[in-house]
Each structure stands twice: as C-alpha cells, then as structure tokens.
Write a structure and sequence with these properties.
With 204 residues, the chain is mostly helical. It has 2 domains: 23-85; 89-196. Helices cover 74% and strands 0% of the residues. It has helices at residues 2-19, 24-55, 59-64, 78-85, 89-120, 126-138, 145-154, 161-170, 173-184, 188-196. The N and C termini lie far apart (60 Å). 3% of the residues are buried.
C-alpha cells in the first residue's frame, strides 16, 4: 500500500513537472538576466586578470604586447622584488594595516554608540540628524575631495599617517548609517530585560 502511494505521488510530481511551461517573456527576461550577470562579472574580473598577467611580464613584453597577452614565463618574480625594494611596498602594506585597524576600532566604537542613541532615544532633532547622515552617505566622494583637502591642509595634516586616519574616521558616514539600520533590527525588549537585570546603558 505504501509503495503504491509513493508511486502515485511520484507520478503526480513528474506529470506536474512535465506540464510546467514558460512564457516567451519569462525566457527572454531570464536570458537578459544571465547575460547581464556574465557581462558585469567579466567587467569586474578582467581588470584583475590583466593586472596579474602584467605583473609577470618583463619590460619588453609590457611594451610590445597588450594587457591580456600571456607572459612567456610565469616564474618571473623580478617585478615583485622591485616593488618591495624600490617602491617600498612593505612600508605601504604596514601603513595600510595600521590605518585599517585604527579606522575599524574608531568606527565601531563611535558608530555603535551613535546608532544606539539615535535609535533608542527620542529627542528633538533626531530625524534631522538621521536625514543628514543619509544625505551625507549619498554624496559622491569625488565631489568633496577639494574641500576635504583644503581642510586637511589648513590643519597641517597632509602627508601624515595620523592625518589620514583622522580623515577616514571623520568621513566614514556609511558605517554609521549601517549601524543605525542594524540597531533597528534589535528589539527594545532586550534592552529592557538588561535594565531590569541591573545593566546600565554603557553595558547594554
């Protein structure tokens, strides 16, 4: 009996699958979606591939071939040696690591506290502050480069590592807006439970 029931269900499912049809519009839209994904995927991958290929070329190969022509020898590491010795890439990586850690710590500490205040407390100007952060996140970075440079130059922070860290922390508006969206998904009942248990706002 169980076997007969299983065969009946399997036949019904297979019949339903055979009867499933697609309209012309659905097929065309699916093709457009996949072609678009492939196209934009190639647009993102090809520059990276060209950089990897060019990194192994000699100076003569770089001048005589295009960027997608494969090098004769993929074991040519002289370009990497020159990058670390002549261009001081080791120092560049160290500076990038220092900036990343410093900006990450400051952004998390400041962003989470600010997002908590804007999300949990209702005060005059709350909506205005949110709107300003949203507006600032929509501004293109290129449009603010001249102004940011003038401010950094007047404060004598140009060509200083700590100046770059301060600039990155001060212009990282997207992270604060993301933290605000994250706080909105945390129920207030968790805060109330923590307060009942004796936790302060700093502990929350």
């Amino acid at each position: 009996m169980k076997k007969l029931l299983w065969m009946t269900c399997a036949a019904a499912v297979s019949t339903g699958k055979r009867r499933k049809t697609y309209s012309v519009g659905t097929v065309i839209w699916t093709i457009v979606e996949y072609v678009s994904l492939i196209f934009f995927g190639l647009c993102a991958v090809i520059p990276l591939v060209s950089c990897v290929i060019t990194a192994f070329k000699t100076e003569e190969e770089y001048k005589a071939t295009n960027v997608m022509t494969l090098p004769k020898n993929f074991l040519n590491f002289s370009n990497f040696v020159k990058a670390f010795t002549q261009a001081d890439m080791g120092r560049a990586f160290l500076n990038s690591f220092i900036v990343m850690v410093a900006v990450l710590l400051v952004s998390v500490m400041v962003g989470t506290q600010l997002a908590f205040v804007l999300n949990r407390f209702a005060f005059p100007g709350n909506g205005l502050v949110r709107s300003l952060y949203l507006f600032a996140s929509l501004l293109p970075a290129v449009a603010m480069q001249v102004t940011v440079y003038n401010v950094m130059s007047s404060l004598h922070l140009v060509n200083r590592l700590y100046g770059y860290i301060i600039m990155m922390c001060g212009t990282d508006v997207i992270s604060i807006y993301i933290f605000i969206q994250f706080m909105e998904n945390i129920p207030i009942s968790l805060d109330e439970s923590a307060i009942i248990d004796g936790a302060s706002y700093w502990q929350i």
